[in-house]
Structures are given as structure tokens and as C-alpha cells.
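User: Hi! I'm working on a homework problem where we have to compare a predicted structure to a textbook description. Could you give me the structure for the chain below?
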Amino acid sequence: MSALEPVSLPAQPNPSAEGNLGEIQAKLQKLEQRDWWLWSMAVIVMLLLTFAVFTMSFPDLIKVEDSFFKSSLNRAVRGLIGLVLIFNGYTIYQQVMVKRLRREFSRKIEEMRILQARAEEFERLAQIDPLTGLSNRRAAEDRLASEAGRSQRHGNALTVVSFDLDKFKQINDTYGHLAGDQVLKEFAVRLSSAVRLSDFAARMGGDEFLALLPECTTNHVDTLLARLRPMETEYNGQKIPILFSAGWVGYEQGETTEQFLERADRTLYAEKRAGKIRDREPAVVREVPIGGEELRRWVIGTPPVTHT
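Assistant: Happy to help. Predicted C-alpha cells:
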């Protein structure tokens, strides 16, 4: 297993927010098309009206001596000039409205982007433990359900390891809660650096942690534990040893994520109980003959001293 930073779940974007943002962008695009259409029509109409006014402004080009025709021609020219002015006014009004709508849509798009960024940040924070920076229980349960489903579909191995810090209350009582926080942070850093990129590390709450190892059997857990031990941290010039218990199980096809976690917790608590029993029991002393000449006391767990 290679070192890595803790893998956290990506924030899931809000579908409704994305839909509203896409709708506003589509309206803005239609508004841009309308703006180009208005400008194009304005240019065409202006050219046509200008040509009409230009031709009718020179009656000498038309050899007609009828006064009524000349009078009608003058009225037509004035009418065309009036139409030009009216159309110009309408075009200006439409341009003002288009720019106003564009500013409004741009403002809404910017607001939607800010809200979406905040929502993604809140979603990320909702899945991150603020003290250790690891994923929290909510993110762990979501990831576990996803990996269990993938394991069930493809038959891949999946192992979960539960951790519980030993004598954590004693550390808080002896050194203070700030020292306890330092211990939690140090364990989180070590756990993050011990798992692979495809693995998942989380703080489940209190002094409980979890590591999810996809495509990894229980035989590989010893490698992970070897990278975590020994462990200690320094607080106010004092070195504090960090001890922990661990329990691990492999995923069994058909079981729910709750059953999977419950089995891991049972193995963890069994390990903790066994450790407490070992701490409470007095050392068993046996008398072992060595070399047939003298007796040596041998405390279980300590090899006897031999003579050459």
C-alpha cells in the first residue's frame, strides 16, 4: 500500500441549482440571438428607407408635371421619414430592454454560481471531520454502501478495518483535551499516509476510526498495521505514545452495510476486551530449569536467558 492523502467523497452538485442555471443561460443565449436579429433588421430597414427617401427626394428624376402627384410624393417622403424615426425609436427601445434583460440575467447567473459554490462547500464540509480533516461517518457510510455494491456486482474483495484508540480518556485526564486533540490529529495523519489512493479513511466519531480497503483481502491488513505502529506524538515537550486496537473483516456477499460494520465492530471490541484482560492479569511466573544446574524465572512473553 502506497502513501496518500485521505480520500474524501466529492461534493454532489444540486440538480435543481444546475437546472436553474442552465435555464438562465439558455434564456441569455436567446436574448443574444434576439439582439443580433434586431440589429440586422434595423440595418436592412434603414437601408431600404434611406434608398426610398433618397429616390423620392429628387422629383426631377421623375418627369411628371402633375401637382397632385408632386404633393403626394412630398407627403410620402415625409411619411417615410416619420417611419424611419419611429423605427429608430423602436430599435433604441428594444436595445435598451435587451441590455436590461442581459444585465439581469448576468446578475442571476452570477448569484446562481455563488450559491452553487456555497452549496458545494457546505456539502463538502458536511462530509469532513473538522478536527482531523478525514471524512466523517456520513461520508464513510455512503462510500461503504457504494463499495459493497461494487463488490457484490463484480465479486471483488473488500475489507473494512475499525480502529479504537486505547487509553484515550486517560490521555485527556492526564495531559488535557488539547493533547487528546493532538493525538487524534496525529493518528489521522498516520492513517491517511498508510492507506492507498483507492482506499478510504474516516473518523467515525470520538476516538473511533475506519479504513475501507477495496480489492484487498484481510491478509493485507497486517501491512497496514505495521505502517501505523509504533506511533507517538509530542505535546508541550512530552512524548505521548498512541496505542490502538483494530478489528477487521472481509465483506460477505449478501450482507448489508450495517451488518458489515457490526461484524467489524465486534472484532474490534473483542480485541479491546482481550487487551484489557491482559493488562489486568498478573504476569505468570514459571520456573524453568536451564542447563540442568539452576532454576531461572521466566515471565511469559520474555524468553529465558540461556548460558553458553
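For your comparison, note the following. The longest helix spans residues 67-125. The beta strands are 158-165, 200-205, 208-214, 232-235, 238-241, 244-250, 285-290, 294-299. Good luck with the assignment!
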